[in-house]
Amino acid sequence: MAFNKIEEVEGYLAGAGESVRNVKRRVIIVKDSYFFFVDKGYVRKYYEGGHEPIKGWYSGILSFTGKDPRVLHIFVSGILYDRVGAKELFLRLLHQILMYLHPELLKLKYKKLKRRLRRLMLEALPDGPSFGKGEVEEILRDREDQRSFEKAKYIIPHMSLYGLMERLPRLEGNVTYVEDVAAYLQPFEYIRLGRREHSH
Prior knowledge:
Blueprint: H1 3-14, H2 18-21, E1 24-30, E2 33-38, H3 43-49, E3 56-59, E4 61-65, E5 71-77, H4 78-83, H5 86-101, H6 110-124, H7 133-141, H8 145-148, E6 154-157, H9 158-167, E7 175-178, E8 191-192
Parallel strand pairs: 1-5, 1-7, 2-6
Antiparallel strand pairs: 2-3, 4-5, 6-8
Helix pairs in contact: 1-5, 5-6, 6-7
């Protein structure tokens, strides 16, 4: 894994808008994993009957706050981390941070949300020629997340990330790399890709 990539991303974040720079964050890169956000109403079904049938969507990046609402935990799939460059990874982190700073965006319909988010992202970009409207637009319409999960060893439902957030050691710095996520989760908290029945 190229750790200089996340260092480059941190440099971009340092040059972003003040509100973005000031967000306390912890970036957690999870090896061999992809995330699945379970739709409301299907969480109980997941725990009672395994992971099928449940509805939701795959994502290579999700973010939550824990016990301290002032700290944003941004989970990054190791699959996504290896697939994208530093600029794209920065834009994806920026997307998560702006959603955290502007929770009212979640109430908007998709097209209006996309327009507002595009404007916020462009306003928050670092000064200089590094980024343009085209790159922001590519992030907002990217659909690769719905395919890249097939390369993962583990699929982690979003509910399990809350537990992972609390169980990880408190390390110094903004970035944590999780080598073996199964060591921090119970068997029912993740799905091994390729298995139709979940292990309880």
